[in-house]
């Protein structure tokens, strides 16, 4: 019998006891009285028990092989915040005529009333489906009669002809689990690479031989029967600044390496990058489109007529493609039709647009390559062996002199060489029509940078008038430009901005370089604040932290097991010059502060002074890294805590008589 190659150590134990599946509806008083403090005192709901099993069988309908996955779970709901656990969404996938199906759904709610359990059975009419894109169907249902203390239970069966990714089992979810068990039957004719992701280890695992688990053309096939168990699994709490949760949740993943039928037929799926390079570069929807220089040969001279060097040529071509093709929000690494059609219709997927960009750059005799990546919400790709389904996005790479630039022409408001943040995710695979592919880091070429220059004067009635000038660069400028472009004009944007700021009135405005994306975006506002202090008194308090105050710590977990991923480095500078309506001494003020993160990871500086009846306030907040590892989390948490505490203090001004 063939072995299943495991990427995790299997800890075999003779003491392993499998719970197997449990009877539906057998609710116990122990279930009803389960003390959540044993696992998580803050839990709104807890999985008491879940069991799943996957087998590969011969379909009675198609006579082909199919994966049968059966799932069964029992959940205790403690309060209203846990009611959403009764809203069930099960995704299934389709690929052409091959489609997964959900059937045999069974669901009930159990409430303890007058000394016994009352079952509310879900009406089958409550089940409906929803198409989500071309390849995904969502099966949805809601369990009935949910109350504080309800126990819900449901089960279903999934039939799938898609065997490449044997059914993943997620041990971790958004609520804790007392017990989670997965049983997989894998026939000897299939070899799967199996990996455990996440930071939590298995409680138990066991493997044994299951004789004649299936038959193909009358030939009996043995199976590996493998149990995986986790007990007392903590909830996975999503927090700000992270990539796809699937990168970090504890789960078992299977990827088909190869199969060999009893009649000797073989198929290998785990290929070398050399094999994949050939497939991708000869594929008419990828490599074939990269070669379409002929489409652009007549227009390149006019596009680059004012360009004096290769970098200027590349920028001119990049801007041309951005103007000619509008992104239809479609993802993928291959052209849906062809780049010529996308040019003619002025619309296309990310692959259509960026393959067109690569072909245009090549037509100008520039060294252009394709880079296939996985976006932040899609997760990190497997680098041990090629799994093309991991990739969902394609960008361009142009090499000029000794420097390379990564390009995505789907966003008109992004400057040359700056990728959308959705693309900043670990590494991508660079595809060249003539050379072997290779990995490269996908990082932000610029940081998010904003500076505020405030020059205002306080009047005796406490009103403050003057100007606020904002300079935005990099991702900060991109985000601001996107916000402005949501409105029909800059004037409308400013009007809505004025409405959102009740304590401030914008009297006049000027916004520069909205469409000149290579330049700094500058906003100049003549403003009047409503009464900010009672300046008629001999003493009054005034808060200098009125520009982007930090009101809430974004990091509140006791422990975070996954990195803090900001996407890019960032910097915010605030400079305030406040002229007072007389001569004052500054009796109290917030502490001048200079704190930093370890290893030059960032800093926070604040300084307040008064001279010639003018208060000067300067603040700098910098994060010098895009990614902070889990062991740096406590420092980030404390860093923000100190900032928040410092910003709570007002300055006390006393009139000089």
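^ Assign residues to that structure.
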């Amino acid at each position: 019998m063939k072995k299943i190659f495991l990427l995790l150590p299997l800890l075999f134990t003779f003491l392993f006891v499998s719970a197997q599946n449990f009877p539906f509806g057998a609710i116990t008083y122990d279930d009803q009285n389960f003390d959540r403090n044993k696992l998580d005192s803050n839990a709104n709901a807890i999985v008491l028990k879940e069991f799943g099993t996957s087998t590969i069988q011969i379909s009675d309908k198609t006579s082909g092989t199919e994966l049968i996955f059966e799932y069964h779970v029992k959940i205790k709901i403690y309060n209203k915040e846990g009611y959403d656990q009764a809203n069930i969404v099960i995704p299934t996938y389709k690929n052409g005529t091959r489609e997964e199906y959900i059937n045999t759904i069974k669901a009930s709610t159990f409430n303890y009333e007058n000394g016994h359990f009352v079952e509310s059975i879900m009406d089958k009419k409550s089940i409906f489906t929803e198409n989500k894109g071309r390849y995904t169907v969502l099966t949805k249902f809601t369990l009935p009669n949910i109350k504080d203390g309800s126990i819900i239970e449901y089960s279903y069966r999934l039939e799938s002809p898609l065997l490449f990714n044997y059914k993943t089992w997620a041990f971790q979810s958004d609520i804790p689990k007392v017990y989670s068990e997965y049983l997989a039957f894998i026939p000897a004719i299939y070899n799967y690479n199996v990996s455990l992701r996440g930071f939590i280890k298995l409680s138990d695992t066991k493997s044994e031989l299951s004789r004649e688990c299936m038959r193909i053309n009358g030939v009996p096939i043995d199976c590996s029967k493998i149990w995986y168990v986790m007990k007392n699994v903590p909830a996975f709490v999503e927090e700000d600044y992270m990539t796809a949760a699937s990168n970090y949740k504890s789960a078992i993943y299977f990827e088909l390496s190869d199969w060999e039928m009893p009649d000797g037929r073989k198929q290998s799926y785990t290929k070398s990058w050399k094999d994949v390079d050939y497939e991708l570069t000869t594929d008419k929807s990828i490599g074939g489109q990269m070669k379409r220089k002929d489409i652009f040969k007549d227009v390149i001279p006019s596009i680059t007529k004012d360009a004096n060097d290769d970098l200027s040529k590349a920028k001119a071509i990049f801007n041309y493609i951005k103007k000619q093709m509008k992104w239809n929000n479609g993802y993928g690494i291959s052209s849906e039709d062809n780049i010529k059609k996308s040019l003619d219709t002025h619309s296309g997927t990310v692959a259509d647009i960026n393959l067109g960009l690569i072909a245009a750059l090549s037509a100008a005799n520039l060294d252009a390559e394709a880079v296939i990546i996985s976006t932040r919400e899609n997760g990190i790709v497997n680098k041990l062996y090629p799994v093309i389904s991991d990739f969902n996005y394609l960008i361009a790479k142009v090499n000029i002199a000794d420097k390379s630039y990564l390009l995505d022409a789907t966003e008109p408001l992004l400057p040359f060489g700056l990728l959308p943040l959705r693309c900043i995710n670990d590494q991508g695979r660079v595809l060249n029509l003539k050379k072997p592919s290779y990995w490269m880091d996908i990082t932000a070429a610029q940081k998010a940078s904003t500076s505020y220059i405030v020059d205002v004067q306080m009047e005796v009635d406490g009103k403050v008038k003057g100007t606020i000038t904002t300079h935005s660069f990099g991702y900060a400028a991109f985000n601001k430009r996107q916000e402005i472009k949501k409105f029909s004009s800059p004037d409308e944007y400013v009007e809505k901005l004025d409405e959102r700021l009740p304590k401030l009135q914008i009297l006049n405005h000027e916004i520069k370089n909205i469409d000149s994306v290579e330049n700094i975006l500058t906003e100049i506002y003549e403003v009047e604040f409503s009464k900010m202090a009672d300046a008629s008194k001999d003493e009054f308090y005034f808060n200098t932290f009125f520009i982007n105050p930090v009101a809430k710590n974004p990091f509140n977990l006791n422990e975070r097991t996954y990195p803090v991923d900001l996407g890019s480095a960032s910097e915010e500078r605030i400079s305030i010059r406040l002229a007072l309506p007389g001569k004052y001494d500054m009796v109290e003020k917030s502490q001048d502060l200079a704190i930093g993160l370890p290893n030059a990871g960032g800093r926070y500086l604040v300084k307040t002074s008064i001279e010639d009846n003018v208060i000067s306030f300067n603040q700098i907040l910098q994060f010098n890294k895009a990614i902070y590892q889990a062991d740096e989390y406590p420092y980030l948490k404390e860093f923000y805590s100190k900032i928040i505490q410092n910003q709570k203090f007002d300055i006390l001004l006393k009139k000089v008589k």
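The chain has three domains: 29-267, 273-441, 448-655.
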